[in-house]
Amino acid sequence: MLEMILKQGDWEALEGRAVVYSIFQPEVTADPIIIAAYTSCNTEDFLRKVNMSVEELHTARTIIMGRQTKEQKRAPQKFHHAFLHNISHENALPKECDILYVPNEFSSPDRCKHAILLASQYYALRYLDQQDGNRKVLPEDTRKRTYKDYSDADLKRYILREYLIPLMRARGKPREFQVLADDLHRFSGGSRFADYSSNLCSEILGGTVKGRTLRKHTDVMIALKGEDYITAAQIRKTIPTT
Fold this sequence. Notes:
Layout: E1 5-8, E2 17-24, E3 33-40, H1 43-49, E4 61-65, E5 78-83, E6 98-101, H2 109-133, H3 152-169, H4 174-187, H5 194-205, H6 214-225, H7 229-237
Parallel strand pairs: 2-6
Antiparallel strand pairs: 1-6, 2-3, 3-5, 4-5
Helix pairs in contact: 3-4, 3-6, 4-5, 6-7
């Protein structure tokens, strides 16, 4: 059974770009070898990360293509995939993306590469499923609810699933983004985290919020809701600003 550990990122808020790697041990006395690949649905990002020109893109593997629906006017997303070279240690892996580790032991480098390809395909499918799941802007049964209807644990999950992840997906769709932002403002109205959520919407729209930080943002909101301003400030210090 193929094992996968998401070392950086959030399974519920994938960025659509990831390093997928494993460590191959050729012999007991030999040094381990890091085998890594980069996969992304953003062509410009992919070319930059793998140091490839547009003319060379045809040499990269397309591992997954999103489904085309009647509602979509743009072409479905493609996930490009290529193995990285000269990765001597884990610290040399690209950082501005999700990082997926395959801890299995393999009998050969080719088997290791095949497992990395399978893990990359799983990652791509999961990302595309998230996008499909977030296509509907606001379900009817959520429009009358407010933050008061949830316990802290449920509130964190609800804000993440129904607002923050869809907002990240809607950055290139102004009308959809505004509907979500307006409803989050309504949902959090009267709470201690209302201003924070409004500012967060602006930061998401500006592209300064990373998907892997969304859970920390919900932690800040819960701390503010409980008027635990010290904890909120401490959590904010751990969130990258760019």
